[in-house]
Amino acid sequence: MIQTTDLVALSQEFGNPLYVYDAEKIEFQYKRLTNAFAKVEKLRINYAMKALSNISVLKLLKNLGSGLDTVSLQEVQLGLHAGFTPDKIIFTPNGVSFEEIEAVAKLGVQINIDNLSVLEHFGTKYPTVPVCIRINPHVMAGGNENISVGHIDSKFGISIYQIPHILRIVENTKMHINGIHMHTGSDILDIEVFLYAAEILFDAAKQFQQLDFLDFGSGFKVPYKKGDIETDIEELGKKLTKRFLAFEKEYGRELTLAFEPGKFLVSEAGYFLATVNVIKQTTSTVFAGIDSGFNHLIRPMFYGSQHSIENISNPKGKERFYTVVGYICETDTFASNRRIAEIHEGDTLCFRNAGAYCFSMASNYNSRFKPAEVLWKNGKGHLIRQRETFEDLLQNQIMVEV
Ligand SMILES: *Cc1c(COP(=O)(O)O)cnc(C)c1O
């Protein structure tokens, strides 16, 4: 796996701010998951590409055997561009237009519907196209309220209590339901809660006779620092496999077990490198101001995620307390009162867990360029996205004098 010295060298080679992804770690996580469910004959991992959508990362996952979980037509198109065949892609949108769902279905991609009105409309218009339904089991799987999506007031999925209505639509339209799905949101702290939600899905599955797959979504929690709780994938694998195999017998038909992890596959593989522009002592703290902001990494400000930060230019330095902030003209605090090896202006700070929902949420706020991205593989850094240039900022803008 990548070492601190490699990161220092990459920051010198490609410049900061920079995203680096360790291919070996992505492979490691992919194999961890498939090993945990090795006893399931038909296992399908659909990488939730909204976490990190660089086409070289997609290609890497494709070569590992992964499928793709997508939430927009554009993600589907990127996936096809990266070489995924339509049968390896599932489309799990929320609140998109009917036209978008139609366009994706026409590409031959499995669609997943999470709304009764859309289900009825789609089933009426395309009774022969198989559809998966997203069920909301109303289970609180823990995590931040922005990323916990299975609870009672969530906008996601069709309520488990509305199964009779789903069945009525299926009967009326003669449509074919080939899968059912749940995604209880990010950060499952307790696998018992996950297994409980799975029971609800098994129960729902019995109502449909022609299923090909059961999709348990994702929400696996990853550690952000040493000692953090993480989803025990191996334990979940053991328990859910047993339950799944028993259910398959009961159901009387072979089923595919599907997952769609984002964070689990790529979070820990990512590093974000930024240069310290200024150190500012105030009456209450020492600020380290870096050449970045929430335009490049918004998670700490958006939902309070705690990325660990190291000073890789002075890893053995005496530790002191810092508040790490960005250069955006708005408060953009990455971390408050963090213990970091002594920082000098010009040092490179390294943010961990920067693989998922980091670059993919980056913007051009303050008219800054989005960072470059590098994929580390076989001891070498491969540039997979150039740093933006001034031309990129002007592209699509039209200067008129009216
Ligand atoms: C975002 C999302 C995922 C991935 O969630 P992670 O917490 O990153 O694993 C999976 N399924 C659906 C439907 C999603 O929207």
From TrEMBL:
Gene3D superfamilies attached to this UniProt entry: Alanine racemase, Lyase, Ornithine Decarboxylase, Chain A, domain 1
N6-(pyridoxal phosphate)lysine modification, residue list: K50
Binding site for pyridoxal 5'-phosphate: G219, Y357
Signal peptide boundaries: none
InterPro entries associated with the record: Ala_racemase/Decarboxylase_C, DAP_deCOOHase_LysA, De-COase2_C, De-COase2_N, De-COase2_pyr-phos_BS, Orn/DAP/Arg_de-COase, PLP-binding_barrel
Cofactor(s) required for function per UniProt: pyridoxal 5'-phosphate
Family affiliation: Belongs to the Orn/Lys/Arg decarboxylase class-II family. LysA subfamily.
Alphabetized NCBIfam families for the sequence: lysA
SUBUNIT field: Homodimer.
Function: Specifically catalyzes the decarboxylation of meso-diaminopimelate (meso-DAP) to L-lysine.
Record-given protein name: Diaminopimelate decarboxylase
Encoding gene (name): lysA
